[in-house]
Design goal:
With about 250 residues, the chain is mainly alpha-helical. It is built from eleven helices and two strands.
């Protein structure tokens, strides 16, 4: 079989998982922010036309949209790969051996377990990057009084609170920032500055090889990551929809 045939078969399998697990992105045919016949790019361009000056500023906002579409598709892909490998992850509880009267559960990591960790690591970075771009977009459209180096999703949302405190779409984004995004970013910071999920899990197992209750919870946390990021693909879409409505309501 030619390599390109393998690539196409792999992509066909990923698309089956998209459908089976209901994984969506901004470019999905069955995702529309308001109506089934809507051209999402055209709606976005119509709205930001009220905020951007012709030329470079408009181009910058167009590029941000392109990045958002790419990043949502990227998380969609990472999430499908998590579902692809999840059924085949090894479980230490299946390999217990007696050692001096005590059962030890070794972690003989297989390929799917390693790939699952790799896609988990990538999914955290992609999701954070998406929301960082949302912050960039809002900072282009609204006055935040933030310096360019200060702009990130959290700071921009906080800077807009006084102006939009009575706006339901802004409040959805603010609540997301304080809940799901806060949890995500805490994990991402640990990954970037300290340890990857793979290394964290490795040493959790090393220090608890004879504790079946801990290892059952440890395995469960790992397998739930696929669902966690599938939820985040939907939060990306809900967030973008709320951003568009906010921009539409508040346009100058």
């Amino acid at each position: 079989m030619e390599e390109i045939e393998i690539i196409h078969k792999y992509q066909n399998l990923i698309e089956v998982i998209y459908k089976r697990e209901g994984i969506l992105s901004l470019s999905s045919n069955n995702y529309h922010s308001s109506s089934p016949n809507e051209n999402l790019l055209q709606r976005y361009l119509d709205i930001i036309g009220f905020y951007a000056q012709p030329g470079e500023d408009f181009l910058t906002l167009h590029k941000i949209f392109d990045d958002l579409v790419f990043l949502s598709k990227e998380l969609m892909f990472h999430t499908a790969n998590l579902y692809l490998h999840r059924p085949y992850i090894n479980n230490p509880l299946d390999t217990g051996i007696n050692f001096n009267g005590e059962t030890i559960y070794s972690n003989y990591q297989n390929l799917s377990s390693l790939r699952y960790s790799m896609f988990t690591n990538a999914a955290y970075q992609t999701t954070y990057n998406y929301w960082d771009k949302i912050g960039d977009m809002l900072a282009h459209c609204f006055e935040t009084k933030l310096k360019p180096r200060q702009i990130d999703f959290s700071k921009v949302i906080e800077a807009l609170e006084t102006e939009f405190t009575n706006n339901s779409n802004y409040n959805w984004i603010k609540k997301f920032k304080e809940t799901e995004y806060s949890i995500l970013n805490k994990s991402r910071l640990n990954i970037v500055h300290y340890l990857t999920p793979e290394t964290t899990a490795k040493y959790e197992h090393i220090f608890n090889p004879n504790d079946p209750a801990f290892l059952e919870s440890w395995q469960k946390r790992k397998t739930e990551i696929a669902n966690y990021f599938n939820d985040h693909t939907k939060l990306m879409l809900d967030g973008f929809s709320n951003i568009l409505i906010l921009l539409e309501k508040e346009k100058p």
